[in-house]
From TrEMBL:
Coiled-coil region(s): none
Species this chain originates from: Euroglyphus maynei (Mayne's house dust mite)
Residue stretches making up the CoA carboxyltransferase C-terminal domain: 1-148
SUPFAM superfamilies xrefs: ClpP/crotonase
Protein name per Swiss-Prot or TrEMBL: CoA carboxyltransferase C-terminal domain-containing protein
Recorded GO CC terms: mitochondrion
Amino acid sequence: MNGETVGIVGNNPKFAAGCLDINSSIKGARFVRFCDAFNIPLLTFVDVPGFLPGTSQEYGGIIRHGAKLLYAFAEATVPKITIITRKAYGGAYDVMSSKHLKADVNYAWPTAEVAVMGAKGAVSILYRGKENTKQYEDEYIEKFGNPF
């Protein structure tokens, strides 16, 4: 940026919908620590729907490896800017240099969604067994998903 070196961390929504898995958590943590060691500021683009589900991820220790990324961002002393581009759901959002980890500046596009889970998942839990869940989903999006 303006001739200065910046470390960029981001999720790739074209691969596993941008979910964090074991390999991406390890790679991200290593990169964040590298940037911190050489005093390179971090720019994080967040589009993360959560951690990749599955027994192979759970048996492999996704929580332990995800915590490595969280810890790397938390202890990094370089300037950190976070931009939420689309989805920022659940614990995976916290791991990605969230406001809770003391990122210096946090931005979100007007269409960004910051929540525990998506509207469809929330409605399926809140209105389990009821008919016309599409109506409830639309109401949920209008109430909680609308920036205005």
